[in-house]
């Protein structure tokens, strides 16, 4: 393919290629004028006002009194802080981020979770919601029964608690909205396509679908939970000693998901995948937009990975951008 | 054999100081964090980077810097006659070590403690200058993966035949019996990270060939920068309309 | 602009490989025309008008290379596609073409059309490579025409009818070679054409009938290459180099590794169109045919040259002996040539045989060319200039030898000069021995320092150079010698020992490695000494002035300085670069006179006498070790200064002074050899003399036994002692025996020390375990190499890159051996030439000694002139048993039937020498016996 798209496995006919190229060009042009100096390569000098002083941020190094970039990316200046943000790097965690991860290991008093970052994140036993009450001293029994909470290869949603100097990452699931995830689809996209917003949990009631956009690029799409969990219910449940009431989400193991719901989940997941492959920003609005468009075009689920759909998506985006600009 | 005709043309029509045609592509493998292919003439190499990620072998974990691993291999179809090379063959091991050392010098490993960076380099088509091509491809792949580096590493090979220094030897010229020198540089910092040669030459010849290879590496750096800049811009623009 | 060339080839092991190569097209290739403004014309040499630009196609180049070498052809564009094709088909033609192109005076421009964007074409589907190349040539010609504008003229010369037709269609001016040459209007160029039409061919008496129907097949077919290779594998055929007997063109030997011994080839049919030097495939004949008597075979070919032994110089070694086929009891295997693997055709020198009917003047006539070298067959050529060429020495080149033709076909290349003219004959000698006597090119002369040269000041400051100008250095050389390369000194030290020094001209100071001068000298290898002139290895300013250690001037030198006891024991040897100032340049006669004159006692004479004394001791030590003193039958000519004709011939006189100088030169060579091998055991240039095999010494032993001399050949010392004891009736007897011993020796050779084991370094003749050449760098390139090695061993300079590779040094040594041999043969040929000229109008009677008894006569040696040859007692046609003479080979006697005469080997005789011409233009010396009563005994 001329313009490589990651995750895209299809062949374009010459006509489609042409349309694709045109559309991509329009996308770019519509971006408005950008300082070319905003982009740097490894080893490029970053223009900085040395007189006033500056703070050196990530992605930079000082050599011979000059500020050089260490990654390819965009220069970001916030007051005096100068940093270079690479585009395609692994997830760079920050406190308070919502992430979706997969448990890789069960270790004494902690779980190791893969969150698409430099290192596996750690979820301490003391940082999860226990089934039998919110605040309780963790006993030895708890330790031995860690596997009943989360075992290897479980998907969980959590929040970043702390970030240590050596890069190690600690998570917590201290809210009811966090916890084990079941009966849904996980889509992996590049972390930089997901902006930090106020909300990461999106409930699309019109489709009966719930979306979690993890900041680490893992997106979780599943059916809406039956009842909205709140603290009252939680406490009620907390009095029961039932271990089967798993922490966090509703007990959806036995809930049946209709075919229609599954299709909707699938369609949404595909939309996320396509947007990720095109390199567009993944935002609930854009997802819903594209979802609606796919329905209006009558694209079948299996055709969502065809060249035609991709070309249409890019053209649509180009339209919208040029309208905006 | 005449490697350079009296008219000043080499066997493939280049002049002594000319590089072969360069071509590079970034982001060819979806699963990997960073990937790139690099072509110098008919030599094609693909490099794939995984990392930084959790160290798989806990005993090798380093507390203060990242672990860099590199594996070099040649596809069985890369040379004229199909030949299966075992994992432990000496040339492969040597080149793996060489590339690892070169890239390790470039990566700022102390910014990524307790993690592991895997670089896999495979030669898809070999026509002379595979070493240089591998390093260039690996540098691109690392940049694509967003791993912080001191500077871009670029590399080029040069030789000396018929009393003339020649830049970027192809397979025929390589087998011509003259010296074969590969140099990898940090272009901005003007430092040499790799210098390899297997021949015996007098000092003045060595100087000429080394200078020529360095010039070649600088030209390759130029090309690498262009490719990377284009790629960055493409990704950035695609993601969202940017404003100043 | 990158194209890719892909083709499939088969490797040696039979695997099929697909090869893909890059092919870059450029737009910076110049057209080479001086007037063109579009291209970069720094190297331009063509002019677009009025003379046309000529483009030759491949086949024309391959076949008509002699025409292209002629200076009448100029303003030519050589396309790279043509160059490549020629290179693949015939490397020697390619090299010649390249030489023409690199000569700026010829205006040949190489245009890289394959890499030019506008003239590169891809092969079409279904187009053969040849067609594609032809099309490329046409495209390039057309491009030239368009590029240079309508006023320019471009001519494509091709003999291929298809190509010509297409070219004319495309608007290119195309002509055949014949038309083209005719238009040039120079008749002699037409002679150079090969395979020109036979419309006007005339038959002459000794040429075969040309009409195809009447042509009969004379020679058997050559087998196909595939058959030959399989035959070689199976062992039924053998491969080797064909060596034709120098004195009989129809006998040859092939030495093969597979058989281990030499295979005899007899007669023209069995030789099957093989030339001397070709690599041939031979099939053995059935064993019954191996015993046939060689003499009978020769008698059949009556009209061929006689296979008699010629009168010539005494052979200096076994390798210069005429190879006579022995009719001994042991039958050597015989075979016949069934295929030629590699042809060794080159250009040959000689003259035309006179033709009977010259009825058509100016038309094309067949003539037979006879080479000066008797190993070659006659060559048929066609020429229009028969009358012009009939008395000239010409150069001819061979084209082909069909089965139906008795002789190979060739064509005329150029003329050297008149037959019999001394200058021409000398040229012929040089040509036949591959000696380069062209003047030094400008590039070579540019390497010389500017004249007049004097000692530069920085050499005096050079710490590596010792200042020996205050030492009493002198030189002793042949009279009239201008290139003095060695000087000596001998001083008495306070402690009673002597300091003896040998100073050799520091040639490597001026001849730097890898310069044009160095390459030229390496290729020449040695100076060649003809009777009347010298072909120098280095330019004259160096040999006679800058390097030559003349008297009373300061010169740079490379010195070997020994500390010796009065008994000539070497205590230490020092090597250093130095500056000397010779105080006297004497001739041998002068030096001898000084030493002998007891009245003189000046310091110089005292030094000479001391040296002489030391030299005698050293010589005696050498003889005790087993050095051989062999007699040299060299003769010296006295040349008339005006006509340059020889006035008198005499034997070379060896005096004590000669031996003294020789002794110290030998010692210097040995010391240097030891030093360089110590440092560079793998690549030193040394000289060895292999021990002669008992088989080679057989003739000597036979002769010695016949005269009652007992020779012990077990070691060189034993041989030397028995030679000393061989004293006979007169003082010359001993010298004769020594001369006979000399001709049984092997040749000494240069070799690289990495190629042989230390015991093989031995020099038989000098009885030295190691030896090299160091003392004459002005006239021998081997010495230049040794100088460089010695300088590197002393740390004064680094070893030149060319010497570091073993194979390089071996090939240089082989070249030097070849050049040395050729120079020797040329010298001998020159001496023979002058002997012939001397005797031309001076028939003489003189004393001779018998050296061998043969069935039909005697071989005699004439000491005064140093020549040797047969005196026939029976005629050629006489049968053996009817002859008047009884021969006893064992006791080496012959008796006349009537008992009147009896000859034994080493007897004295008087012979009559005169020059006869049994065949026109082939003068030779003839020796006849003179009766005691001064009557010529003529034989018929």
TrEMBL record, chain A:
GO cellular-component term (any): nuclear exosome (RNase complex)
Domain RRP4 S1, first and last residues per copy: 90-161
Gene Ontology process terms (BP): CUT catabolic process; exonucleolytic trimming to generate mature 3'-end of 5.8S rRNA from tricistronic rRNA transcript (SSU-rRNA, 5.8S rRNA, LSU-rRNA); nuclear polyadenylation-dependent rRNA catabolic process; poly(A)-dependent snoRNA 3'-end processing; TRAMP-dependent tRNA surveillance pathway; U4 snRNA 3'-end processing
Pfam families: ECR1_N, KH_6, S1_RRP4
Ranges for domain K Homology: 184-223
Localization, UniProt: Nucleus
CDD domains: KH-I_Rrp4_eukar (cd22525), S1_Rrp4 (cd05789)
Superkingdom to which the source organism belongs: Eukaryota
A molecular function (GO) term: RNA binding
Domain Exosome complex component N-terminal intervals: 51-78
InterPro entries (UniProt xref): Exosome_cplx_N_dom, Exosome_RNA_bind1/RRP40/RRP4, KH_dom_type_1, KH_dom_type_1_sf, NA-bd_OB-fold, S1_RRP4
Keywords, alphabetical: Exosome, Nucleus, RNA-binding, rRNA processing
PANTHER family documented for this protein: EXOSOME COMPLEX COMPONENT RRP4 (PTHR21321:SF4), PNAS-3 RELATED (PTHR21321)
Family listed: Belongs to the RRP4 family.
Protein name: Ribosomal RNA-processing protein 4
TrEMBL record, chain B:
Keywords: Cytoplasm, Exosome
One Gene Ontology cellular component annotation held by this UniProt entry: nucleolus
Listed GO biological process terms: nuclear mRNA surveillance; poly(A)-dependent snoRNA 3'-end processing; rRNA catabolic process; U4 snRNA 3'-end processing
Pfam families membership: RNase_PH, RNase_PH_C
One GO MF term: RNA binding
Domain Exoribonuclease phosphorolytic: 18-148, 151-215
Keyword Cytoplasm: yes
Subcellular location field: Cytoplasm; Nucleus, Nucleolus
Organism superkingdom: Eukaryota
InterPro entries: ExoRNase_PH_dom1, ExoRNase_PH_dom2, ExoRNase_PH_dom2_sf, PNPase/RNase_PH_dom_sf, Ribosomal_Su5_D2-typ_SF, RNase_PH
PANTHER family noted in UniProt: EXOSOME COMPLEX COMPONENT (PTHR11953), EXOSOME COMPLEX COMPONENT RRP41 (PTHR11953:SF0)
Family indicated by similarity: Belongs to the RNase PH family.
Protein name: Uncharacterized protein
Automatic annotation (TrEMBL), chain C:
Molecular function terms, GO-annotated: 3'-5'-RNA exonuclease activity; endonuclease activity; RNA binding
Domain RNB: from-to ranges: 465-796
GO cellular component: cytoplasmic exosome (RNase complex); nuclear exosome (RNase complex)
Cofactor(s) it depends on: Mg(2+)
A single GO BP: rRNA catabolic process
Highest taxon, organism lineage: Eukaryota
Record-given protein name: S1 motif domain-containing protein
